[in-house]
Specification:
Pfam families: DUF3502, SBP_bac_8. The chain is α/β, with parallel strands linked by helices. It has 18 helices and 18 strands. Helices cover about 40% and strands about 15% of the residues. The strands form 6 sheets. A 5-stranded mixed beta sheet has the order 2-1-3-14-6. Strands 11-7-12 form a 3-stranded antiparallel beta sheet.
Length: about 525
């Protein structure tokens, strides 16, 4: 999946409590089914409404058939809606959302994530839900109250998105095609590739063994961010050092390690390790890895330990090694996977009623997430599996992109990719000492007061910064120096001052004492 999610035991008790409250509040009979008590303001006599949803990735073959079945199911429960489901490829997704929102397009619900969500929210692209959520999705609202996650999607006092309630960490792992490495006599002890220097040696060995293969499209910068314990704010190259007690906002290009990373990327580019088209390659990097198009990748604990990697060829094998295991890394944010309602939606109350049904109705949940039993999935005991003629790479519905924001830890099932207590293990990994919650949780930065400066900063990054980071400049130190000066001249100090102001307000709110 594009961004990960899961089930853990730590949330089981709160969810059971939530259900207990719901049962005690609305059921007179102890043997009654909660679905019998679902109510909707949408009377059968009301006209049918089409809800338009956007998600990321590929639209799988059985999507329309499944969502037709979803429509039939919710109509039986009193919600007179059908669904128009659209997908946008991942590399184009954030930009297209922004363009659609700026053009005033109408849709009802979309998936979003991290910096894309921050940018959409800061531009007022999403509908405030403060009054609508408790009224039309009371069960969902209770869950969020118990989790305390709505703070992460609140901007200027308005709830503008619905976050996931899952705990995991994205601490990066170096990954390589170990089947090809071993064939070429390249061996590494488990967990022995831990630094950018270790990665550099491995990449050169792979290139020498397979000179005509694409080794990687990943620049060196992500490795240095881990080494330096840099917390990216998801705001145009600004961040803080996790060891800084004052949480001073800084620009990434001003850091000494930025030059180091650019020098290493230049080395990889000149040695044909970093593919020449990496700068303009818009293909999904995870698809390239699973399809065997690259020899090396950067991934997370989730995909380092998933039972089924989703390779198109069962002969492909990977080896993974945790990078900089002694360095601090923040856990994934609640806004890593979000659903939000478009500000121009005319049917927000129906969207929320649908989401509330998914919170309480397991049959509906299974239908939306897994599809039609016997066609898109089968049950093997308590585990969801692909039908005999399908797999992760050929799935006609399961594994569809953007579903993660809809995952419910009470209902999520074991799968071939994530068997048994997989998500419980992810939660435990997030609790190790060097994995910590962000000190700036709930920070949604607005560029309203600095929009002109931000626009110029973004354009300068496109004109100069990307080429530096991908190793395409002839004189790294000179190019970085020139880039730093130009960023200063177009208003970097003003941007940092405004972002620091918002960071300080967030810290004061999170730590009132």
């Amino acid at each position: 999946m594009k961004s990960s999610v899961f089930r853990f035991q730590r949330w089981l008790a709160p969810y059971l409590l939530c259900i207990a409250l719901a049962l005690s509040g609305c059921m007179g009979s102890p043997g009654a089914d909660i679905n019998d008590f679902f109510t909707s303001s949408n009377l059968p006599s009301e006209p049918e409404v089409t809800l338009k949803f956007y998600f990321g990735g590929e639209k799988k073959a059985a999507t329309d058939e499944v969502w037709t079945a979803v429509s039939e199911y919710v109509k039986d429960k009193g919600l007179n809606v059908k669904f128009s489901i659209h997908f946008i490829s991942w590399p184009e997704y954030p930009e297209k959302l922004l363009v659609m929102a700026a053009a005033g397009d109408r849709w009802d619900l979309n998936f979003d994530s991290d910096s894309s969500f921050r940018e959409m929210a800061s531009r007022g692209s999403y509908m405030p839900l403060d009054k609508l959520l408790p009224e039309y999705a009371p069960n969902l609202y209770k869950k969020y109250q118990m989790d305390g996650n709505l703070r992460s999607t609140t901007m200027n006092g308005d709830i503008v998105g619905l976050p996931w309630s899952i705990k995991m960490n994205q601490r990066p792992y170096a990954g390589w095609r170990v089947d090809l490495a071993e064939k070429a006599g390249i061996y590494r002890e488990p967990e022995s590739v831990q630094t950018v220097q270790d990665v550099d040696v491995l990449l050169h060995e792979l290139k020498r063994a397979y000179p005509n293969s694409k080794v990687t499209r990943i620049t060196a910068l992500p490795f240095y961010l881990v080494r330096e314990e840099w917390l990216d704010l998801g705001f145009h190259g600004l961040g803080i050092n996790l060891n800084d007690p004052n949480h001073k906002v800084q620009a990434i290009e001003q850091q000494p390690f930025y030059v180091e990373a650019a020098v290493m990327s230049k080395k990889w580019y000149e040695d044909k390790i970093l593919s020449p088209e990496s700068l303009i390659d818009r293909a999904d990097s995870s698809d390239q890895w699973r399809n065997g198009k690259v020899l090396f990748t950067l991934t997370s604990h989730e995909w380092a330990h998933a039972a089924d990697q989703g390779f198109v060829d069962p002969n492909y094998r990977q080896q993974m090694s945790l990078l900089y295991p002694d360095k601090k890394q923040v856990n994934r944010s609640p806004i890593s996977n979000v659903v939000a309602i478009n500000r121009n939606s005319e049917h927000a109350e129906l969207v929320l009623q649908f989401l509330d049904m998914m919170e309480t109705d397991r049959k509906l949940y299974d239908l939306v997430i897994y599809g039609i039993e016997g066609k898109t999935y089968q049950m093997d005991g308590e585990q969801v599996v692909y039908p005999h003629n399908l797999s992760d790479s050929t799935s006609n519905y399961m594994g569809w992109g953007g579903q993660w924001a809809l995952w419910n830890s009470r209902f999520i099932r074991s799968t071939e990719t994530y068997p048994g207590d997989f998500w419980g293990e992810e939660a435990r990994f997030a609790k190790i000492a060097v994995n910590l919650d962000s000190p700036l949780e709930g920070l949604l930065l607005s560029d309203y007061a600095i929009s002109k400066e931000v626009e110029e900063r973004v354009q300068l990054y496109e004109d100069m910064g990307r080429s530096i980071e991908f190793g395409l400049v002839s004189d790294v130190k000179g190019a970085v120096s020139d880039y730093r000066i130009k960023q200063q001249n177009i208003g970097l100090d003003k941007i940092i001052d405004e972002v620091q102001r918002q960071v300080d307000l967030n810290l004061a709110s999170n730590h009132p004492d």
